[in-house]
Design goal:
single chain; 269 residues; mainly alpha; Endonuclease Iii, domain 2; Endonuclease III, domain 1; 2 domains; 14 helices; 54% helix; 0% strand; binds iron/sulfur cluster; DNA N-glycosylase activity; nuclease; iron-sulfur; lyase; endonuclease
């Protein structure tokens, strides 16, 4: 971890709950853009290894894993995909698969009947319309069974290097808590955040925000008092503890010690 700290990134410490300009409706558009980009820079330091948490080695595997990730965790998907990917290696393999065989493998991910049907439909659509390859265009990807904009952006961003904002449940919760937007519709959120963050940063910004959502800014009781974005967040203390000790207990994940060290280094300055 570098010596960059909370304090050096956000010297204008708005720490009292509710005191942030965005919390009282006095933030300008320019101020919001600057804050959004500062948030991205802070998260770049805190999560230098942010990445898609689904395991894959090619676009088809990522597409399949992302379809399976609906209504479950990436950890659970990663538990079933080794067996699935070993048995089904191409779109044609999925197209020719028996539903029962796929269901048996993916059962732990939930909604396994619908997901198996989607994977077989996906294989058929890829063979019928795209020569067995995963297309790169957003408008093509969203025509595939089980594939919405979120999945399409995950695949484009992580398998093809095309910038995209992945508006999942964590992303929606965080950008609203951070008051980067008040929109609730995923497409409207994508549009609003796309204006604030540089296009080349879209994919990584999504990963960083989702990392923070999984480790610090939980849906219930976020760890505000141990959050690297505390000074830039108008929701500091609204739903979670502001005291460092109880907040630190709520920080999770392999980066936990680094996150706490980063925040504590800022406090000491
Ligand atoms: S944990 Fe608290 S301070 Fe951090 S982003 Fe979430 S609401 Fe804001």
């Amino acid at each position: 971890m570098t010596k960059t700290t909370v304090a050096s990134l956000t010297p204008q410490r708005h720490r009292r709950p509710g005191s942030h300009p965005a919390a009282v409706g006095s933030e300008t558009n320019l101020g919001r853009t600057r804050r959004a980009r500062r948030i991205n820079r802070t998260l770049t330091v805190v999560f230098p290894d942010a990445h898609a948490e689904l395991d894959f080695t090619n676009p088809l595997e990522l597409l399949v894993a992302t379809v399976l990730s609906a209504q479950t965790t990436d950890v659970r998907v990663n538990q079933v995909t080794p067996a699935l990917f070993a048995r089904y290696r191409s779109a044609a393999d999925y197209a020719a698969a028996s539903p029962a065989d796929i269901e048996e493998i993916i059962r732990p991910t939930g909604f396994y009947r619908a997901k198996a049907a989607n994977l077989i439909g996906l294989g058929r659509a890829l063979c019928d319309r795209f020569g067995g390859e995963v297309p790169t265009a957003l408008e093509d990807l969203v025509t595939l069974p089980g594939v919405g904009r979120k999945t399409a952006h995950v695949v484009r961003g992580n398998a093809f290097g095309k910038p995209g904002l992945t508006v999942d449940t964590h992303f929606q919760r965080l950008v609203r808590r951070l008051r980067l937007t008040t929109e609730s519709d995923p497409v409207a959120i994508e549009r609003a955040i796309g204006v604030l963050i540089e296009k080349r940063e879209w994919t990584m910004f999504s990963h960083r925000i989702i990392f923070l959502g999984r480790r610090v800014c939980h849906a219930r009781t976020p760890a505000c008092g141990a959050c690297p974005l505390a000074y830039d967040c108008p929701s500091f203390g609204v739903d979670g503890p502001t005291e460092p000790a109880p907040a630190a207990k709520r920080v999770t994940g392999p980066e936990r010690e680094d996150i706490l060290a980063f925040v504590q280094a800022g406090e000491g300055q």
